[in-house]
Amino acid sequence: MPGYAEIGITTNFSFLHGGSHPQDYVHQARKLRIPVIGIADHNTLAGVVRAYKELENHELEYKPKLLIGSRLVLMDGTPDIWVYPRDRAAYGRLCQLLTRGKRGDDTDKTEKGECHLKLDDLLEFAEGQLLVLTLPHRFEQAKALDVLDRLQRSCADGVWLAASVLYRGDDRRRLMQLHRIAEAAGVPLLATNEVLYHHPARRPLQDVLTCIREKTTIDAIGKRLEANAERYLKPAKEMARLFRDLPEAIAETMRFAGRIDFSLAQLKYQYPDEPVPPGKTAQRHLEDLTWQGAHRRFPVRISPKTKKVLHKELRLIRKLKYAHYFLTVHDIVRYARSQKILCQGRGSAANSAVCYVLDVTSVDPTKVDLLFERFISKERLEPPDIDVDSEH
Questions:
Q1: What pLDDT was estimated at residue 71?
Q2: Alpha helices in the chain (DSSP H)
Q3: Which tens digit of pLDDT belongs to each residue from 181-200?
Q4: Coil, strand or helix at 389
Q5: CA 243 – CA 191 distance, rounded (Å)
Q6: How far is CA 244 from CA 236, 247, 376, in A?
Q7: Do 190 and 178 meet the contact criterion of CB atoms below 8 Å apart?
Q8: Could you read off the pLDDT of 292-341 as tens digits, one per residue?
Q9: Measured at the alpha carbon of residue 22, what is the angle toward residues 207 and 115, in degrees to the nearest 5?
Q10: How far apart are CA 115 and CA 75, in angstroms?
Q11: 247 and 26 in contact (C-beta within 8 Å)?
């Protein structure tokens, strides 16, 4: 079986366009043994989260590699462009770009669900990102070459021209025309099925979604529907057959996927460094503040029970590397109180003696036998909630 990566997947997070859930694509790719899938929803990154969680939360005997991308639907007549970040920094720039499009500015306000982006906006954020240009079913060669040239002159790491089979009777001629455009522009041609649903049986649902989007009925919509039921996740063998005259377009999908190392697993909590004095580790500073706070809370004597509880909590905080988190909350509370802003920690944080001596909470947990494990557990593998209410 030839290696093939399908990078043109649209999920139901492309509102009224995609006919399948992200999870459906994960399991269909597993069933078909497709090594790589790329989810690129319209002007959003929302769909990739559930696909990622599906891969993380299930013991699958075969797991496809997941590429994180977005299909930018631009407002200036430029064909849609898929953008796939190679690394964490490029992902951040893509998020900034989408935020700009959805937020708008003083001269161009956006309504809910809209995203106002132009090619110039993309070029501003293109550094270090991988770009794939998709062309509409009717296109002008001069326009395509102009867009490809502008993308190539940007700071992007790479530019590709995507091609799909439309089943209109002229596919071989059309694919060869795309091949000539790619050669003239000096970019690789890349095969895709521009997938709208994971299985052909979803075609009727996708038709209904199109009718809702176009505000019409199935009887009246006519040629605005997809012409056939071929926009599903196809196995590599079938894609190789469709592109038998251009096998390099199939091989290019795997080369493209091989250049991308970014995964949502790289997104971690990043706490501010400001609360930590120079020359100290976060854990050492937290321990110093904890014992200073303990002497302030218990000026006469720190009981053996309180000492035992504080040592236990600090050991677990060190093991789970949560010191920065505690210092950040302490810094917020300290500043609020310095400005006479009323604030109070509550909830499960009241189970923590460290929170108590840091003045985040006001309940001494050693007096009421609260359970610290309700607040922090090494099995939970995520920072606890420290809820702090502040006055309006």
A1: 96
A2: 22-32, 46-57, 88-103, 119-124, 141-152, 171-185, 203-214, 236-242, 247-258, 282-297, 304-320, 323-338, 353-357, 365-368
A3: 999 999 999 999 999 999 99
A4: strand
A5: 8
A6: 12, 6, 57
A7: no
A8: 999 999 999 999 999 999 999 999 999 988 999 999 999 999 999 999 99
A9: 75
A10: 9
A11: no
